[in-house]
Amino acid sequence: VQLVESGGEVVRPGGSLRLSCATSGFSFTDYSMNWVRRAPGKEFEWVSGIAADGQTGYGGSVKGRFAISRDIAKNILYLQMSDLMPEDTAMYYCAKSQGTTLTDRLHEYNFWGQGTQVTVSS
Question: What is the mean pLDDT of residues 105-109?
Fold first, then answer.
């Protein structure tokens, strides 16, 4: 199993960004996937998830601004981020769950990528 994030960069407040997570070694139809972030000096925060059946979920701080999606044929997970705020500055990780359903319990994720840095600043 491999997870490789990309797409992080410096963006101005109000801007948009799309993160990608290229995966291999498993199928999205067998496991749920997640985006998790960690801001400097803070705990890990679950951002969004997509279950094996396609059901999606979002953390309260990003609901309505972020959208998770996946390309099953290409094995790529995406996170479209809009209306970005300085508080969204963090390292963003994609993580694979051990099961098929949505969960925000980080200890249930068995594989993580190396992360991609998003910085929102004017």
Answer: 96
Q: Which of 84, 60, 108 is nearest to 7 (CA)?
A: 84
In this prediction, residue 81 has a pLDDT band, given cuts at 50, 70 and 90, of very high
Average pLDDT on 55-78 reads: 97
Torsion angle (degrees, nearest 10) of CA 12, 6, 106, 87: -10
Rounded Cα–Cα distance for residues 11 and 21 (Å): 19
Q: Write out the two tokens for 87.
A: 């508080």
